[in-house]
Design goal:
CATH topology: TIM Barrel
Radius of gyration: 20 Å
Strand order of the largest sheet: 1-8-7-6-5-4-3-2
Number of strands: 8
Shape: globular
Helix content: 40-55%
Largest sheet: 8 strands, parallel
CATH architecture: Alpha-Beta Barrel
């Protein structure tokens, strides 16, 4: 599946950030004999997205790892499924990256992440691709398990601060040390209990992120998007996180995005899934989020009875849900509008020009 020679450049239209998209993590079903990562990436691409989110590790092929895959760089360079997706015509990659080797806690930077960044910058030099390297919901990680209602310990908070700063240092050093153009790599953290932080409880947004030099923050937004009043609650949470970031003058625009939101079919009818999704997309565009990513293309969760929970755009029977068409129609409009703008103006639109028209489209069409 890996291509031969240098990866092809992504066109300006494919590299443009349309903001809206989805992701793929360990789906519970698939419809082809391809590795699930490749199958779902192709479906995401066919929907029109210029962004994809997944995890880079030794399990993406759902098989035993070859002996020559020992690091994140090895996965990116040698795993056929990973290489195939990294070579696809996506402009933006959001990737969970956890080092496979044991990292010395006292090191100034994460050397395995540094090597991965250098590889991405060299391999995809000139392609217009941008890579954002991050992790899963940090508020659960600093508590030791998902769903914990205990506050994180000071030791856990300090450990996460150091871990993130070593990762950011790896990214910064790789960009300093590797000549590159029309390709970029950034580091991001993810917070998921922002409302708790806003009420004074310790967490990622108030006790970890302010003590890092992190480029971006992903907000796994269920503590806001699952409730009514998204149009006001979501900007409040995003403002709170943004205000805790250390300044990075070289990065223009907002630095917080919505890394997860979604409405499982086990609790939401198809029409409600689509309607609530439109609300979140509009609120994210209005605020200026760089991305807003639905969880996810194929469902990856089963309930205690083994039934699909329905975090999907395409269900386990291969049926595209109304929320899929919400994404597809938006992306079809977005690509068409950007192409027409570029033809008329002889340049691509700015991010603010684009999102302003995107909001008008949502308001005018109900999509």
């Amino acid at each position: 599946m890996a291509g031969s020679g240098s990866p092809a450049s992504v066109s300006e239209l494919d590299a443009f950030n349309y903001v809206v998209g989805t992701q793929t993590f360990s789906p519970k079903y698939q419809f082809t004999g391809k590795p699930w990562l490749v199958e779902t990436a192709e479906v995401i691409r066919a929907m029109g997205a210029s962004v994809i989110k997944f995890r880079l590790d030794d399990n993406i092929r759902r098989g035993a790892q070859p002996e020559n895959i020992r690091t994140l760089r090895d996965v990116a360079a040698r795993d056929p499924a990973a290489k195939a997706v990294l070579d696809m015509a996506f402009g933006h990659y959001l990737i969970w990256t956890y080092p496979m080797a044991k990292e010395p806690g006292q090191s100034a930077r994460d050397e395995e992440l540094y090597d991965l960044c250098c590889y991405l910058l060299k391999t995809y030099n000139g392609t217009r691709k941008t890579f954002y390297l991050g992790h899963w919901e940090g508020d659960w990680e600093i508590r030791g398990r998902a769903g914990s209602r205990e506050d994180p310990t000071p030791q856990s908070i300090a450990g996460k601060i150091g871990w993130l700063n070593r990762r950011q240092q790896a990214v910064d050093d790789a960009k300093r040390d590797t000549p590159h153009h029309h390709v970029d790599v950034f580091c991001y953290a993810e917070a998921n209990l922002v409302r708790d932080c806003m009420q004074g409880r310790p967490g990622m947004a108030n006790e970890v992120i302010p003590h890092t030099q992190i480029d971006f923050v992903s907000y796994s937004s269920y503590d806001t998007s699952n409730y009514s009043g998204v149009e006001t609650r979501l900007p409040e949470a995003l403002d709170y996180v943004e205000s805790r970031l250390s300044p990075k003058p070289a990065i223009k625009g907002r630095r917080v995005w919505i890394g997860e939101y979604g409405y499982p079919a086990s609790r939401h009818a198809p029409a409600e899934q689509a309607a609530r999704t439109r609300q979140v997309i509009r609120a994210a565009l209005q605020w200026g989020c760089p991305f807003v990513l639905y969880w996810e293309m194929y469902n990856n969760e089963l309930d205690k009875d083994g039934k699909q929970r329905g975090f999907w755009l395409i269900d386990d029977q291969g049926v595209k849900q109304p929320v899929y068409y919400t994404h597809q129609r938006f992306l079809q409009w977005a690509r068409g509008w950007v192409a027409d703008f570029a033809k008329r103006a002889h340049r691509l639109p700015t991010f603010d020009e684009y999102r302003g028209k995107a909001i008008e489209f949502l308001d005018a069409t109900g999509e």
